Predict the structure.
Amino acid sequence: MEWIRLFLALALPALLGLQLVARLIPPTPARRCLVAGYGLFAGLVLWPVLLRFWAACGLPLGFWAPLGFALVLLGVMRGWPQRRSSIAPRMGASVVVLPLGSIAKLVCSLLVALLCFRLFSLAGEVIWRPLFPWDATMHWATKARTWFELQSFVPFVSNDEWLSLGGEGVFTDHHADYPVTIPLWQYWLATALGRWDPSLINLPWVLCYSSLGIGFYGQASVSGASRTEATVFTFFLLTLPLLNTHVALAGYADLFLAAAFGLTLMALHNGSQGGQPWQWRLMVLCAIGCLLIKNEGFFWMLTLLPAIWVARRRDARSVLLATAAIAAAVPAVLWLFPADIAVAGHSLDSLDLGYRTGAITGIFRSLFVLGNWHLAMWYFVLLVALVAWRRPGLLVVAGPIVASLCAAFILFMFLFTVTEYAVGAIRQTAVGRIGLHLMPAVIFLLLVMQGQLRKIESSHTATRWVD
Amino acid sequence: MSKYLRALTWCYMPVLWTAAFLITVLPTLAGPPVVSHSGDPAPANQTLTVQLSAQGDTALNLPCPAGPGILQLQIDGGGLLTEVRLERLPAALGKKPQNVVAGPFRNGEIRLPLRERQTDLAADARCRLELRGLPAAQLTFTEFAWSFTLRARLGGMWHDWITFRPWSQASINSHQATVHTWHGMVPTVLLGLLFITVGAAGFLRWRTGFLLWWMVACWLVLDLPWQWRLHEQLLVTKDRFAGVAAQKKPGLTNDAELWAFAERVRALLPAAGSRAFVASVSDYDGMRMAYYLYPLNVYWRRGGPELPASATVQEGDYIIVVQPSELSGDPESGHLVLGGDRWKARPLLAAHGTVLFEAR
């Protein structure tokens, strides 16, 4: 019975997300992967919102009542008409399915088999190991445990506010102001099980990992990558050691934010290339997810502004202009913004601005020397050199994702060199985790760069034949 | 234009190599010259027999280099050893020896890395080799040699790379393929440089098709040891936690004592909603105790002060003091004291230095 309840607790929110995304995406190539990847993720982000709505209406918490609500919503959604594609995708958005060579097929099969084994290794850790990492027990599971035991979403406030209120009707932990998506999932699974299980409450991390991989494969296919390229780069993404660690040692929100930001930028890229409105809707859905997962998500969402501007202009110069503008704007904001106003939980006063020696080395070590990302950043270095040499028109094709990642990287560099968080780069306590938020999008950019280089080779070959 | 860019691409290759060399290899070359050295008391061609004490331990002093190196031991009866430690003399007070290898060593081969001498210590050129194992066991060393060759460094890196290390609190922040620095080799950097050099050359000849498959090959070289490590870890996790009731699992972790105490507190205190203040200098121990106490109305502040002002703690509140803590007790007046502040409290429960007080 326990496993049935657990299955229902995971499956019905996932089905809701799948239904929602299936309504958004019209018949299109790689639709199944897109619906599965984005749908699972939508379920993960939206179910806690529905739980909060349910509680705000004063309706009884528990397991069966919200589950009934989910069933009703599923029924309503089935009656919701499916969208039809009104705009034919532009070049680059069509999927060219080329037959795989026998060696490529063999290698791809091997990679898929290795991914299955990886999923098994990670899922086993999640199922057996109780909550382990630091932050998981400092400010995520604290709320979940309290809400589960009290069956009420009692508010959490800062230490100082708790003292001033005398703890009357409020609780406190180290980050009371963080979004509640993660603890709400842990609460929900504990409620489904009817007991606090410090292992099984982390099963959503396995779902999130799967949704990121499937969504990535779908968007890679839509972007014009061959099946081999899509499989290989999905393998690269899903075998990043730090990403794997965040599944195995579940309990942090960074994996969810990485998935949200990555899926946002993939949809942005393909939306700007193919012109399909549903890609923009997926982008908005995942961008909202960034806000609902962690405070840092707000800053990553801001990086979409230059990207959208670049997507409208569609030229290489605007990418450079946007990047230069961000590079100039960030120090200006740090200089001019009122120091006592907090944005997304941080004020300039609290950041203690000033350059920290050793921070650059720490960032470099995290990206290139430690094993966080295997060889992803080395690949990036080589591809940047080749793109600069071969000029395949990357800034035109991938302008929005390049602009967004450049803006994100500028923020990342400022955060870890001139604020108090530089200690997180020097001691390697935070730079890897924040870098994780950007890595799915970086891997997607690698795929696009590789694809563009391949495309100009094909065109050169074709030109030679014509000549 | 493309000619210049091509030249630029090739120019930055040596720059990358140099940068990687400076970062990874150079710091390790500041030690002794790269020579093989057989240290007393047992030259490579001699044997040495030692007997463990009745407590199962013994120690040898031996000469050692100032720089990093590997002490290679061949030992008969290695299966009787449980642990071998190597540290420089004089041993740094309060510091655990860095080079500890767990036995048994059934094949008789032991490789002990030694770090560079710290300049702030007045170290001499001697090391202490500590052996632990079966009481009164007799062991014979047949090889006793220091090694610094490139092959040894590569071997050291490989050994370091494939050595299983269980999850730690740092695992969530970064992943290190290797943790020792003495060999001066980092697989990610070595493979990265190899990938870029061969990849660039292959791209000129075979274009992107080569690049993709070359990347896959290099990636797998890094990823397969990582997959193996994940699998080994899974087996350890399964052995420890599979089949254990969810409620009992924290009792099998390093937090067992904190969890057990928290369970007793939760059973003792009246009901959910009781205010409980957790006091500790240790962020980790304080944080974990607080977590295990929810849904009590727990107050714990990271980075201190350990307790809020005494005026905010009311009669009927509870204080849990987790060691290490700077709070001290005044038995005569029944107060907890920290600096100039005092909290009137009586102890209700104590175990392993952790004490539950009731504020009065």
Remarks:
- Chain A touches chain B through 82 residues (CB under 8 Å).
